[in-house]
Amino acid sequence: MLTRRQLIIGTPATLLTTAIAGKAFAGTIGVNDAQAAQPAPAAGPFTLPPLGYAVDALEPHIDAQTMTIHHDRHHQTYVTNLNNAVATAPELKTRSVEDLVQNLASLPASVQTAVRNSGGGHLNHTMFWTSLKKGGGVPPSAELGRAITAAFGSFDALKTQLTNTATGVFGSGWAWLSLDPAGKLIVEPSPNQDNPITKGNTPLLGIDVWEHAYYLKYQNRRKDYVDAIFNVIDWDVVQQRFAAKK
Ligand code: MN
Fold first, then answer.
1. For 90-114, what is each residue's pLDDT tens digit?
2. Which end of the chain is more exposed for a tag (fewer CB within 10 A), N or C?
């Protein structure tokens, strides 16, 4: 699992997994994903965190080929483009991606779009990988379980809301379980790579519904993918985020 420090400063480049997918798949990821092409890399400060588990660990719910391309190519592209953006504004290099995304309006206008898209992509995916595990899906107990019941009526009712939100995102985006500024649990969508922190909310769990997250296995059946991902969500991690932030 990534520590908060790793999330902020990234992990050593030596831990990068090797991109093994090959170019044969590059044109099949999703027609709306213009970032599939690999830009030229820039030196740091942001790095791709390792998955933390094997690319086939989440089979059959999320297939190894999707995991490989999603992590090694798509996430790497967000990291590379974020590095390219901060290379033009070196005063940003020492700031965490969370800080940059949360304070978008205060950044130089020339980098705001890149930080929003690629910084958001780096932040969202770093959180996404650590929200999943083999043998997940066990509903949270303890305080998060009680809070979910209080807010939504039941864990199943939360799953229904997350599913409806995830399937309802038009185009590319995410469905989130978040805390609002008052500390209330909410389900919300976001477009593209926007993160709930830009609205003052605290994300606890994000479900990626970009086509690149599911199209190789599920094609247009986004709901089947969303149904399947509940089998690999690590609710212990979500509980830890809840306990840390509430
Ligand atoms: Mn993604």
1. 999 999 999 999 999 999 999 999 9
2. N
Using 50, 70 and 90 to split pLDDT, how confident is the model at 37?
A: low
Residues having C-beta closer than 5 Å to ion ligand 1: 208, 210, 213
Q: Which pLDDT belongs to residue 10?
A: 37
125 Cα: distance to centroid of ligand 1 (angstroms):
6
pTM, to two decimals? 0.83
Q: Cα(85) to centroid of ligand 1, in Å?
A: 20
- The domain ranges of the chain are 142-245
The CB-based long-range contact list for 17-26 (8 Å cut-off, 24+ gap) reads 17/50, 17/51, 17/55, 17/71, 17/72, 18/72, 19/68, 19/72, 19/73, 19/76, 20/68, 20/72, 21/65, 21/68, 21/69, 21/72, 21/73, 25/65, 25/69, 25/216, 26/73
| Å from CA of 74 to ligand 1 middle | 7
